[in-house]
Amino acid sequence: MTSVMSLENATFVRPSTFYINGFYNMPHAKYYYIFMCFVYAVTILGNSLIMGTIYLARALHTAKYIAVFNLALSDLCGSTALIPMYADMLLVENQYISYGDCLASMFFIFTFMTMQSFTLLALAFDRVIAICFPLRYHAIVTKTTMIKMLGVMWLFTLSFISVVVVLITRLSFCRSTTVDSYFCDHGPIFRLACNDNSPNRIMAYVYTSVMLGIPLLLIACSYGCIGFALYKISNGGERMKAMKTCTSHLILVTMFYLPITSTYITALTTYIHPNARIINSVLTQTIPPMLNPIIYTLKTEEVLQSIKVLYKQIKMNLYIKSCIVMWISVYCEKKKLRQGST
């Protein structure tokens, strides 16, 4: 069922649904569904733990952990935008998605993926100031500065992705509505159009450059500056201590950008079986959000210490509440006995 309109003596076709072809003939789809449910559950628990810890622990109310909170939020929302829809298609084997839902899915997935990239850039800014300008760090990287930086990133991302999605609505799909991807991907959809898709192609190139390429380049430059600053530190112990503060962020950057970059390069240079490409792309977008909170918990002493303190506080509060409940029950029982004796 499609919506057909006359537009300047041409036929404009807006489909009612798209067919997501990414799961066609994928072997052992049910096992893959179970695995994705596990990934999503760990993602929810891990990122919720990080956000809750940062919110409750006063020691983590700093500029750096505002960015970490934003990364956890982007990871959680990005996985929620992708995995439930993906898992539903695997389980129910219904690979059709309505036109409006497809565009909404595209908007949210690309928005949160872009914010993951930008947040890693904000954390790189935090690390380069902390190591290259340690005496001025607290004056430069304040909570207000970080909130403003992230606010601008959110505003720019929402505006840019809105333009990307709105440009899809000018396209006519008169031949095929089969999307060769595992979600409503921008590139595979605009390539299906019958009319001129050059604005969409340009936006795709701009998106790749501005949202992924430039942040990666700036992060690489920041670590070049960090490496130079570490080289000038004569004390080996101090150098190692400074390097450890970058370990978590460097692992997150590697996990986010390396799979994406390798997928693009491999797709351009060699042939990949469609199923292998789909699985690789899905893992690229779902595994980093699951591992990010685990890495920050294990590799960052401040977060571990805050979790331990919060656990002790919760345990103490529960103990006090149980003691109060027990005392009230004993008091009520004695009162009943006194009334019975009289």
Structure, described:
The chain has about 350 residues and is mostly helical. The protein has 2 domains: about 1-300, Up-down Bundle (Rhopdopsin 7-helix transmembrane proteins); about 300-340. It contains 10 helices and 5 strands, in the order E-E-E-H-H-E-H-H-H-E-H-H-H-H-H. The chain has helices spanning about 30-55, 65-90, 100-130, 135-140, 145-170, 185-190, 200-230, 235-270, 275-300, 300-340, and strands at about 1-5, 10-15, 15-20, 95-100, 180. The strands form 2 sheets. Strands 4-3-5 form a 3-stranded mixed sheet. Strand 1 and strand 2 (about 10-15) form a beta hairpin. The longest helix has about 40 residues, at about 300-340. It starts with a strand and ends with a helix. It comes from Astyanax mexicanus. It is a multi-pass membrane protein. InterPro entries: GPCR1_Superfamily_Member, GPCR_Rhodpsn, GPCR_Rhodpsn_7TM, Olfact_rcpt. Keywords: Cell membrane, Disulfide bond, G-protein coupled receptor, Glycoprotein, Membrane, Olfaction, Receptor, Sensory transduction, Transducer, Transmembrane, Transmembrane helix. GO terms for molecular function: G protein-coupled receptor activity; odorant binding; olfactory receptor activity.
